């Protein structure tokens, strides 16, 4: 991926008189880029360990320069130069040394920038992916890749972590749903229990008429409404003659049914604002409100 930038450097170097060829190697001795100039040919072999530095041969001069970045060797520069152009000219030799230094520095900077992009780009992609996961709260998302390096391992670990979070979130949702169901059930049961308690507290269990407690409350309200009013309140006390004989002759089940029938009959002959209550046994009470005359 660095070939266009490297070739740009090599094209500048190639204009120097006497340069036979340049080779740039990766740390694994793979040739990254190479070039020959001025119709010259040079037998190029990967540098071997321990061969860094300058070598003099009958027809040409070679220099192998390691390229370092952050104390790590990131490549090797291999320069061939014809001896015929060197001669004994000190200035020419110094120019060659300066050329080697410039190429090394340029190559180091170029490779460093490229390596920075290679490392930073996937990290930026991971950061953007995590931002999308956080924004959408969707832990089923996965970051696809085909890398076999440390970044690939990082992405695999990230995907595995998201899978665990997704699984835990699913379990948590199930627990929350179960708890909500239990809460709704208990709430319904409490409401039913409260309704039943209210029914038992204020109504007669046999006839479902208001009992003494509710009758007393209705009477307090009726008397309170009488203040400043021209209406009157009436009260009827009722009991059943011969009810004991019915219980003795036919049993309590029949007596209970008689009480339910009597209660229903009384309710049919009073108004909606009136109150029919059972005091107990065969005794009933009727509270009549808003009467114009006795």
Description:
The radius of gyration is 52 Å and the shape is rod-shaped. A hairpin with a 2-residue loop joins strand 4 and strand 5. The model is unreliable at 38-42 (pLDDT under 50). The longest helix is centred in the middle third of the chain and has 53 residues, at 150-202. Helix 1 (3-13) packs antiparallel against helix 3 and helix 6 runs antiparallel to helix 7 (252-268). The strands form 2 sheets. A 5-stranded antiparallel β-sheet has the order 2-1-5-4-3. The chain has helices at 3-13, 83-86, 90-136, 150-202, 212-226, 243-250, 252-268, and strands at residues 19-25, 31-36, 53-56, 60-69, 72-82, 232-239, 275-280, 283-291. Helices cover 53% and strands 21% of the residues. It is of the alpha+beta class and 294 residues long. It has 7 helices and 8 strands.
Q: Please tally the helical runs, counting DSSP H or I stretches of 4 or more residues.
A: 7
Q: In percent, how much strand structure appears in the residues?
A: 15-25%
| Ends distance | 110 Å
Question: Gyration radius, to the nearest Å?
Answer: 52 Å
Overall helicity: 40-55%
Structural class: alpha+beta
Based on CA inertia axes, which overall geometry fits?
Answer: rod-shaped
Tally the beta strands: 8
Segments where pLDDT lies below 50 for 5+ residues?
38-42
Question: What does the main sheet amount to?
Answer: 5 strands, antiparallel
The chain-level mean pLDDT equals 78
Strands in their spatial order, largest beta sheet:
2-1-5-4-3
């Amino acid at each position: 991926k660095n070939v266009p930038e490297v070739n740009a450097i090599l094209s500048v170097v190639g204009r120097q008189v006497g340069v036979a060829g340049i080779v740039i190697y990766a740390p694994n001795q793979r040739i990254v880029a190479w070039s020959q100039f001025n119709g010259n040919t040079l037998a190029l072999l990967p540098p071997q360990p321990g061969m860094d530095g300058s070598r003099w041969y009958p027809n040409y001069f070679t220099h192998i320069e390691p390229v370092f970045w952050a104390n790590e060797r990131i490549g090797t520069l291999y320069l061939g130069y014809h001896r015929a152009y060197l001669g004994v000219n000190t200035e020419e030799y110094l120019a060659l040394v300066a050329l080697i230094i410039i190429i090394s520095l340029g190559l180091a900077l170029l490779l460093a920038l490229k390596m920075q992009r290679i490392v930073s780009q996937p990290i930026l992609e991971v950061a953007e992916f995590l931002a999308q996961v956080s924004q959408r709260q969707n832990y089923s998302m996965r970051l696809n890749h085909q890398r076999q390096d440390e970044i690939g391992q990082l992405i695999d670990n990230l995907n595995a972590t998201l899978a665990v979070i997704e699984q835990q979130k699913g379990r948590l949702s199930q627990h929350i749903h179960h708890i909500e169901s239990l809460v709704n059930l208990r709430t319904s049961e409490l409401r039913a229990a409260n309704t039943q308690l209210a029914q038992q507290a204020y109504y007669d269990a046999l006839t479902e008429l208001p009992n003494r407690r509710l009758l007393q409350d209705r009477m307090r309200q009726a008397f309170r409404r009488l203040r400043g009013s021209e209406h009157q309140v009436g009260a009827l006390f009722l009991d059943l003659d011969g009810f004991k004989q019915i219980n003795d002759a036919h049993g309590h089940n029949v007596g209970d049914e008689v009480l339910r029938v009597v209660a229903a009959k009384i309710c049919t002959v009073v108004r909606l604002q009136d109150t029919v209550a059972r005091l107990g046994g065969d005794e009933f009470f009727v509270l009549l409100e808003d009467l114009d005359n006795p």
